[in-house]
Automatic annotation (TrEMBL), chain A:
InterPro entries: Nase/OxRdtase_comp1, NifE-like. This is Nitrogenase molybdenum-iron protein alpha chain. It holds the Pfam family Oxidored_nitro. Signal peptide: none annotated. Residues 51-471 form the Nitrogenase/oxidoreductase component domain. The lineage of its organism: Bacteria, Bacillati, Bacillota, Bacilli, Bacillales.
From TrEMBL, chain B:
SUPFAM superfamilies: Helical backbone' metal receptor. This is Nitrogenase molybdenum-iron protein beta chain. It comes from the Bacteria. It comes from Paenibacillus sophorae. Residues 12-440 form the Nitrogenase/oxidoreductase component domain. GO terms for molecular function: oxidoreductase activity.
Length: 512, 446
């Protein structure tokens, strides 16, 4: 992978042949994915979803001591408004002096669309510098400036000479891709190009004696970058740090809630540790290529099986397998005893999960281990990383090939139809689709949350206790189920849930 | 050149249009836009509006053509037609309304030509070009109303002297819109009129469809909905009156007199109603007689937000509560003519108060204006600043309030640190609710 020299990263449709519309079973998907014919499918009826800009902001708006500039008409980045004034609480978990969200919208008007938005972009960056003196100014580019052809990189290069904040362009025009996860690449692309590495022009090189250098290298040889793009809570981070420290490793957490300076020496690490390929493959591959730093990225440490896999991968890199096995044995013994009562409680219960491909497959394995039968999954999208995990899942969870697998971000009409047919005891969902399932009366366990613990061994126990609590009294959603209505015709529920997925292109590919 | 804005308190015309349509009973918005537009706006519409949620069809349920690069190159009209056809099959609504994002406008898709093909079908399909770079949420609200008044409200020669229409309270942007509309409807009922508010509790699309029978359109705003009122007058011949959002006795009594007079209600009847309402209002405030005075509850206040609320809150604080709301920051994008009209609503106080009014869209500016109005301590021994002070604004004033160690009551958009269901601040009852909320802040930390 070598896209860093380009101004803009490729979209996931092109880079990973990611699929965004599919309906079938886990077994079908595993087979179809290997044929490589999923990419071209589309929907003839669709509901809205998020965009690259949206997810980019979700991923990096938590950066401390930074100001965001959104180069767009006034509505883009609108999701930030709901976090203005409350986001500070989460930033403070990392640094007491954190300030709340700060952003400037360039408010492109019709005049700007005709004559170009470049002057407004300058105005916004200079305003960010003048009013807030931040360490970094993150500039997000929306659909409109892309279409009118603003020379964003040229202007920002020029502005960098005038401001002391580091300027980070993040190219994330929404219309370029239907795979929102392209946002992760856009953000990492900007961070790698602009924040990683010392600015030798402005800072003198660090001079170390031989002993100091040896000590420095020793620290580096035990340092891992743990990547969090927003789907790990602070409690999750603490659990993973606890496990990595038990293996005598130093942990640097990037990029959520980080400070721009945290990136300067990010390349001084022995290993990059990801919890999700959907998030991090772009970053870790480039780091390997540019700085020779290897990575671990197979799975997310959710559930016992996947936490064990994750730890073993890391330990094998450092050659400390024995130490890891001891840790795993001690942790799993203690945990298994603690979750025993839940297994009896959950035996025979059924669940349906929706969210990112990596997260749902591992969470499904966790719930299976707790006694649930998994009836179906809905992934945001699907690519080669999902394929590997799905095959492991099919091995780990007996009889899972018949479970439903549906692919599509949002598309709650498909979800509503599916749920009406397979009626699980528990719905596990990502933010955005839970309200819809709630109105159908299902008890809902949120797939992740900024204040809760899901990862590592502690996460297994926490998930079990919360699921148990939620199942104990689902009255609120039951009441909603009996007294509200989703905005779909009765006739829709009688149809095949995948009626509006047009996979004629992939059928053609299969035949051809 | 329009200004760049630091933390805007509104989204684009598309966002305002979606918020307006999804607040109509059984109406289904159809987005013809890039795939992310609806998702991007969802948090602003539901999360930032006191957790207003998506109503019947909002959030991720919004049908959207989700155009992407290929459609941008080849045109998105075909995709829109397919999307409308299938939306009619899947989505259960009584009114379908196509709204557009920036990209389809820039590539020149003709949405009206596409929706025209659905004319005369069983279900009404309307369309408005809610071009986002032409205006903000309020502009979107205006465009949707104009389209509804032109293309959905049925023409009639039949007039009903006892029916009026009322708008200008913008769904979502007024976080308390639903409660407020209910209060205003009740007040007009007491004057002897039936009111269509279109978005209020218990209304159906028939209220909107038959709105041309009304004898007067009441626009409760000096900034929003006026262009739509002109369209209504032009198409259906119903005149309009603009009047300010009323909160508390002084605001509401003025409201009743203005509206009553325009409707030809007898002065005696209006004054009788006002007296009755006051008889119910002041016994509640009377309960505060001891505590307000024993504990010296008078406060300085800074009011931040849109023109509808800032004028209402300032009058309530000054004339009903006897406070000193000396500084008002209006955060909307307004034209010169609008500014003048809005400025005129901040006068004529019974208490004789003359607040300083500032127009500034940037959220971080508020602290600076407070410092300027109540100069900062320069290290002097005897010093009088913004104390005791209270800020009435939005959740965006949280940092400013912390900085000045002043309590904050979020009343204006955005609000994400309160949950709002049927709470209302309008009218006499709303004034009591506001008194409860703002004085609770003062006693909460005793």
């Amino acid at each position: 992978m070598d896209y860093i020299k380009h101004k803009v990263p490729p979209v996931r449709e092109d880079r990973l042949m990611a699929c965004q519309a599919y309906g079938g079973t886990c077994g079908d998907l595993s087979k179809d994915s290997k044929k490589g014919c999923l990419y071209a499918s589309k929907r003839t009826f669709s509901q809205t979803q998020g965009c690259q800009l949206n997810l980019s902001l979700g991923m990096i708006s938590s950066m401390r001591d930074a100001v965001m500039v959104i180069h767009s008409p006034i509505g883009c980045g609108g999701n930030l408004i709901q976090n203005a004034g409350i986001n500070k609480v989460f930033q403070k978990l990392r640094q007491e002096s954190a300030v709340g969200l700060r952003w400037i919208n360039t408010n492109l008007s019709e005049v700007d669309v005709i004559s170009g938005g470049e002057a407004k972009l300058r105005q916004a960056v200079l305003k960010a510098e003048r009013e807030f003196r931040p360490s970094a100014i993150l500039v997000f580019n929306s659909c409109v400036p892309a279409l009118i052809g603003d020379d964003i990189d040229g202007i920002l290069d020029d502005l960098q000479k005038q401001v002391s904040a580091k300027i980070v362009p993040i190219h994330c025009e929404g219309f370029k891709t239907k795979i929102q996860a392209t946002a992760y690449d856009s953000v990492y692309h900007g961070l790698i190009r602009n924040l990683v590495g010392e600015d030798k022009g402005s800072k003198p090189e660090v001079v170390r004696t031989l002993e100091e250098e040896a000590e420095h290298q020793a620290v580096i040889s035990k340092t891992v970058n743990l990547l969090n793009v927003g789907s790990m809570s602070r409690i999750d981070e603490e659990e993973l740090v606890r496990l990595l420290k038990a293996l005598d490793l130093n942990v640097r957490i990037l990029p959520s809630y980080s400070h721009p300076d945290d990136f300067t020496y990010a390349h001084e690490a022995a290993l990059n540790v990801s919890i999700c390929a959907t998030h991090d493959d772009y970053f870790v591959e480039h780091f390997q290529q540019m700085y020779g730093i290897p990575y671990v990225m197979r799975t997310i440490p959710i559930g016992i099986a996947n936490t064990n896999k994750w730890l073993r991968d890391i330990a094998s890199f450092f050659g400390i397998e024995e130490q890891a096995e001891k840790l795993i044995a001690a942790e799993t013994a203690e945990l298994n005893k603690a979750i025993e009562p839940f297994k009896a409680e959950f035996k025979g219960k059924t669940a349906f999960l929706t969210g990112g491909e990596v997260r749902i497959l591992t969470t499904a394995e966790l719930l299976h281990n707790l006694g649930f039968e998994i009836l179906g999954l809905r992934g945001y999208h699907f690519d080669k990383y999902g394929e590997i995990l799905l095959d492991e899942y099919l091995e780990d969870v007996p009889n899972s090939e018949k479970a439903i697998f549906n692919i599509g971000s949002g598309q709650v009409f498909e979800q509503a139809n599916l749920l009406s047919k397979i009626t699980p005891d528990l719905f596990v969902g990502h933010i955005g689709v839970n309200g819809s399932a709630a109105k159908q009366g299902y008890p809902i366990f949120p797939l992740f949350g900024q204040s809760d613990d899901y990862l590592g061994y502690k996460g297994v126990f926490e998930v079990a206790t919360r699921v148990s609590r939620i199942l104990k009294n689902p009255a609120f959603n039951k009441n909603l189920g009996s007294n509200t209505r989703l905005p779909y015709r009765d006739s829709w529920y009688e149809q095949d849930p995948f009626t509006y997925i047009d996979d004629s292109a992939s059928v053609a590919a299969r035949i051809g | 050149m329009s200004k760049v804005i630091e933390r805007p308190r509104y989204v684009c015309a598309l966002g305002g249009a979606i918020g307006t349509i999804q607040s109509l009973p059984r109406a289904i918005p159809i987005l013809h836009s890039s795939s992310g537009c609806g998702g991007n706006l969802a948090g602003a519409l539901s999360g930032a509006s006191g957790y207003n949620g998506g109503n019947y069809c909002g959030g991720q349920a919004l049908p959207s053509s989700n155009v992407s690069e290929r459609d941008i190159v080849f045109g998105g009209e075909g995709r829109l037609q397919e999307q409308i056809e299938n939306t009619l099959k899947v989505m259960d609504g009584d009114l379908y309304f196509v709204v557009t994002g920036c990209m389809v406008e820039m590539i020149g898709d003709n949405v009206h030509a596409v929706t025209k093909r659905f004319k005369g079908g069983e279900l009404p399909v309307l369309a408005a070009e809610t071009v986002s770079f032409k205006g903000n949420s309020y502009y979107g609200y205006e465009l949707v109303l104009e389209t509804l008044f032109r293309d959905f409200v049925e023409k009639t020669t039949e007039k009903d002297a006892k029916t009026v229409n009322l708008w200008g309270v913008v769904p979502m942007q007024d976080v308390f819109w639903k409660g407020n509309l209910g209060v205003l409807k009740n007040l007009l009922k007491k004057l002897g009129f039936e009111t269509n508010t279109f978005f209020g509790q218990g209304e159906t699309l028939d209220n909107l469809k038959n709105a041309a029978k009304a004898s007067l359109n009441i626009v409760v705003s000096d900034a929003y909905g006026i262009e739509a009122a002109k369209v209504f007058e032009e198409v259906h011949g119903v005149p309009y009156l603009t009047v300010q959002l009323p909160v508390g006795d002084h605001g509401t009594s003025r409201f009743l007199r203005t509206v009553g007079k325009a409707l030809g209600v007898d002065d005696i009847k209006i004054e009788k109603l006002i007296q009755e309402e006051r008889k119910a209002y002041y016994p509640y405030l009377e309960r505060l007689a001891d505590v307000y005075n024993d504990l010296d509850f008078q406060r300085y206040a800074t009011v931040v937000g849109d023109p509808n609320y800032t004028q209402a809150l300032t009058r309530f604080l000054a004339d009903d509560l006897g406070w000193l709301p000396e500084l008002v920051v209006i955060t909307d994008i307004l034209g010169e003519e609008q500014k003048e009209r809005v400025l005129a609503t901040f006068g004529d106080y019974e208490s004789g108060l003359r607040p300083e009014i500032v127009f500034d869209e940037d959220a971080s500016s508020v602290g600076g204006y407070i410092n300027r109005h109540w100069p900062q301590n320069q290290g002097q021994k005897y010093y009088k600043g913004f104390a005791p002070g209270v800020i009435l604004g939005s959740v965006m004033e949280r940092d400013t309030a912390e900085q000045f160690k002043a309590p904050l009551l979020p009343v204006t958009y955005p609000i994400s640190n309160r949950v709002v269901l049927n709470r209302a601040y309008a009218g006499y009852t709303g004034g009591l609710t506001l008194a409860e909320d703002v004085l609770s802040l003062v006693v909460a930390h005793r």
